[in-house]
Amino acid sequence: MTDHHDAKHEQLDRSRTDPEGTVLTTQQGVRVAHTDDSLRAGDRGPTLLEDFHAREKITHFDHERIPERVVHARGAGAYGYFEAYDDSLSRYTTAEFLTSGERIPVFVRFSTVAGSRGSADTVRDVRGFATKFYTRQGNYDLVGNNMPVFFIQDGVKFPDFVHAVKPEPPNEIPQAQSAHDTFWDFVATQPETTHMVLWLMSDRALPRSYRMMQGFGVHTFRLVDAEGRGTFVKFHWTPVLGTHSLVWDECQKIAGKDPDFNRRDLWDSIEAGQFPEWELGVQLVDEADEHAFDFDLLDATKLIPEERVPVRPVGRLVLDRNPDNFFAETEQIAFHTANLVPGIDFTNDPLLQARNFSYLDTQLIRLGGPNFAQLPVNRPIAEVSTNQRDGHGQQEIHKGRTSYFRNTLGGGCPAIAEGGTFRHHTEAVSGHKIRARSASFLDHYRQARLFWNSMSPVEREHIVAAFRFELGKVTAKEVRARTVERLNHVDHELAAQVATGVGVEAPAAVAGYHDDRSPALSQLGRPGGSP
Length: 531
Ligand code: HEM
Description:
ten-stranded antiparallel β-sheet
């Protein structure tokens, strides 16, 4: 079963070049005899404008850098394959890569979120886990993180959130090393961040290795079967090596000694033939059960408790080949939540809806125009035939006189396929046009409490220590106090312990909150609701 897996590499081989054994030329193929001295008038005279080789060489160098990703700038990636265990998901989806059992080529990029391209790997941060599946039905991107929830519920807040996370504009000093006032200011004013902030203060934010990290699609997506019937789905990646973290002291030391710790580990393990592996799991929820939960399935700050809907293993992912060129592959890969194949669709999650706009938009500037899907790492193995023409970086020579639909003249225009096309899931939608949030999105503490309650004593110690370290550096006392207030809605003991470490008074216990662990748990754990 290697043919499909190799299809992407066969395609990439046509773009891979090896300068070994060649002779130096200009971009025009003219052989160059001498590249150490520029052409000048006299051996101590000025350089001549007519030195086309020197000008071309320097001009290209001047343009070697492109904008780094606005978030997730630092990363590492590798090729591999995904194979579904069996065809059991064909009851739910027409996506062949989830049911065919063939080896589907993939590229996975892991990343940190906040740091710039040259930042250290072992910082306290969320990690990106983005997978591009090169399927026969087109490219499918699962652009996830190593935590199952997110900081905000609506993507319109994402620019505010990222501005708060990134270094402050006056000095651009990464905030992990100094007072992270703006991040905690955002947290303190936005209760919806509470659940994710607990994950961020936990050891999950310090993965020992990318090979030992879970991944999550985060949003509720939809599988769609041949009859157009939808089933809600959450995607989970589980590492075969188990989930392991560093401790904070190790992270700080490693950041100094080897800032590429996670990147090196991924590279070295693949070079050594110890191929990292994950199992893909899905949680499935019947559309009829959309409202059977005490949270909203469209709310990305919530997970579906596994006691309620078990994770069902469906396939495995293996990374078995390092890239040949970091820039061409890991840097130029362009993931997009809207890269779907037939059989998978969105939901109305307002965070997802914003992402569906944002990725293509940012890539238009990051990758310099509308033709970046033609770059080798982004090119589908499925046949591509559009009426799109021209633009910066166009690599194709389209023949024929027509590039519009519908034309009666023929010559150059693709036809509409009879079958195998993408069909948007049919969903009834009605309502008033309003700028508001559903009341079903407003419980910000119950799942945060569930997370805290699920921690072992040592994990709790680490969380408290992380809050004390991070929040303790915040210069504004009101921000520290307001954050502790929020934690008090999660657990009084947690709030009290953090308070003493960050120089604010411990708040009084919130009635009805810190003592209601068992009802909250049993409510979330009630059975039923999944197919
Ligand atoms: C990049 C995940 C929310 C905008 C990324 C990457 C990942 C990711 C993994 C890096 C992709 C790569 O390796 O190239 C997530 C997850 C989110 C989330 C799991 C929430 C569930 C958002 C939101 C927005 C956004 C709400 C905007 C409204 C971006 C942008 C990039 C990015 C602009 C850079 C893409 C590029 O330059 O190619 N995200 N993200 N993300 N994300 Fe998100």
